[in-house]
Amino acid sequence: MMADDSSGYACPIPTSDYQQILLAHGGGGRLTHSLLEGLFLPIFGSPELASRHDGAVVDISHNRLVMTTDAYVVHPLVFPGGDIGTLAINGTVNDLAMCGARPLYLSAAFIIEEGFPVASLETIVRSMRRAADDAQVRVITGDTKVVDRGHGHGLFITTAGIGVVEHDLLISPAAVAPGDVILLSGDVGRHGIAIMAAREGLAFETTIESDCCPLSDPVLRMLEAGIDIHCLRDLTRGGLATSLVEIAETSRLRIAIDESAIPVRDDVRGACEILGFEPIYIANEGRFVAFVPERQADQALALLRRSPVSADACRIGRVTAAASGLVTMKSLIGSERIVDMLSGEQLPRIC
Amino acid sequence: MMADDSSGYACPIPTSDYQQILLAHGGGGRLTHSLLEGLFLPIFGSPELASRHDGAVVDISHNRLVMTTDAYVVHPLVFPGGDIGTLAINGTVNDLAMCGARPLYLSAAFIIEEGFPVASLETIVRSMRRAADDAQVRVITGDTKVVDRGHGHGLFITTAGIGVVEHDLLISPAAVAPGDVILLSGDVGRHGIAIMAAREGLAFETTIESDCCPLSDPVLRMLEAGIDIHCLRDLTRGGLATSLVEIAETSRLRIAIDESAIPVRDDVRGACEILGFEPIYIANEGRFVAFVPERQADQALALLRRSPVSADACRIGRVTAAASGLVTMKSLIGSERIVDMLSGEQLPRIC
Questions:
Q1: Mean pLDDT of the region A264-284
Q2: Above 90 in pLDDT, residue B186?
């Protein structure tokens, strides 16, 4: 599946020499160098990486920096709508965006299981390059380790990212205030269902593709327009519900959302019904909530809808004062219930 | 072995609730939160981590930043002189130091195999905190993923680091010049032999401890004294030999070293003879070479010797012009030979 790469990049690595990753590819010697020079450097193409030092030096003209990291262990490595490479770039870009930062530079560390096909690695690294270009970031430094067969699972990727803060806002659960309006950037539940279908071999009428995408564009649009964003959160592990509960608990405020306002595609809703899941607990990789003051909510919504990745943004609820942090949801049939975090593990290795 | 932690930190996690890591500890829900709040936040103790956002915001007053990353897959997780946590901090601190940067902030991403003992995780995270304190850096952001049993190997840690450049030097293989003197910070070969002995159950007369330590202090001493450092390189995978060949090839100069000047402890030399290894190819985690101009070599050496981690620093060779990059070594018996990179894999998963 992964050898069928139609990305249009020229293939720089003499893959005929080695079809599979050997332990020595992680040993720091000749084979590590051939992987670096034959695959990573030409595909990522960033001058900092090409300097081949232990780290990358960059110039930064802002004093407030954001740093973030995520390990990616998604299984399977390739799924409808993306692969572990897409995820490793977008996930970290999105963490930076959720801090209100402009994502700039990423590092990438690969833990590869001995025997992993070099062609698959190349396809995934190409996905990373495309995703980095889309998100306007550069991979500037990296590392490769190889673990012996049976002690890994194909490929794990850890990316870290740095971004700059170009505004004076405090974007944090602590800045959420009573009266804030909660905007959701689009439909929920697709990434988790796409992974589950790919892993379990479930076939639905339509192929459900992951929502994996970079979220910096809509965030930067709001910031540039002067929206006084109070909090941003991407809806990854634990989904919309867990994210909102975290914010309610940290801010000690009540969040009330309206189930009928939350977009869920029919195929995702159908899959959830079959599998016994609620869409608000399903992981997404290209969805976020923004907490904004009521007076700017319509403007913020219009800005979100101008960005392709949040064209279906909508208002799903609001914040009120409370004795303690709490999320409530008005259900489709009109009753109100308390929403808790995801407890236990719904679907491991979603990201 | 790892439960016997005498670090002196109070134990904040109710480990009685869970003795082993469950998949749900990586699921983003309640258990992930309990791990974060019960273990990572109290042990690392950095305010940025405690803000519990997707990333950490920091103020930086310098325009030149260095970013680096390394994945740590060392096996066994604990070895004489350190553990994977010590290594994950020092390795990344050292990569920043080798770029001539003052290390400031680290991220840490954990890939944990289901069933891993929580007590072992705690011991390792405490090692990280101690190593971070020693190196004067802070872990400001992180991530935890759990993979199902049989698809990992206990624990992998990936750290990324950022540091600031407080000088105008270009420290790089490209800055190496004919006439440069090569200083080595201490004896070589201990880390690799310590890991090998721990893994294979080899017993030597003495316990050989890893040299794992932070190298920022000696580097910053030289920079603060105005040493015109041309290049720095820590001697990790592939050892002294591979590092020098990399630098010779990149700079297209000839590096001539003197085997008799390279400190190797007797027990390390003995172990190498038994195992058929050469000390110059063995990985170190607390050793580096500095390329400095002849006129400042004695001053640089004196500065290095003032730092406890490089008290045994010495001059091992020099750089001359050449038609192409090459490393030669005058052997103990007086003959001269060409030194190549490590080819193949000597000992996998050393770091």
A1: 94
A2: yes
User: Which positions in chain A touch B150 (Cβ < 8 Å)?
Assistant: 150
As a whole number of angstroms, the distance between CA A333 and CA A323 comes to 27
Residue B43 structure tokens: 């042990």
Contact B29 A342 (CB under 8 A): yes
Determine the pLDDT at residue A5.
35
Above 60 in pLDDT, residue B246? yes
Is position B5 within any domain? yes
How much is the pTM? 0.91
Residue A239 CA to residue A189 CA, distance in Å, equals 8
Measured between beta carbons, the chain A residues lying within 8 angstroms of B219 are none
Same domain flag for A39 and A181: no
Contact B141 A68 (CB under 8 A): yes
Instruction: Show the domain range for B187.
Output: 173-339
Chain B nearest-CA distance from A253, in A, is 17
Number of domains forming the structure of chain B = 2
Peptide bond into A76 cis (omega under 30): yes
Return the residue in A219, A345, A346, A349 with the most chain B beta carbons within 10 A, the one to mutate for interface testing: A345
Domain assignment present for A14:
yes
Query: What number of C-beta contacts closer than 8 Å exist between A and B?
Result: 286
Which residue on chain B is closest to A347 by alpha carbon?
A: B27
Q: Which two tokens mark A233?
A: 């959160």
B71·A110 Cβ contact <8 A: yes
DSSP-derived 3-state class of residue B347: coil
pLDDT at A219: 98
Contact A152 B152 (CB under 8 A): yes
| Predicted local distance difference test score (pLDDT) of residue B61 | 75
| pLDDT (0 to 100) of residue B324 | 85
Across chain A, what does the average pLDDT equal? 90
- Among residues A156, A239, A243, A261, the alpha carbon closest in space to that of A192 is found at A239
| CB within 8 Å of A37: residues ≥ 6 apart | none
According to the model, what pLDDT value does residue A49 have?
77
Asked whether residue B288 is assigned to any structural domain, the reply reads yes
Among residues A9, A25, A45, the one where a domain terminates is A45
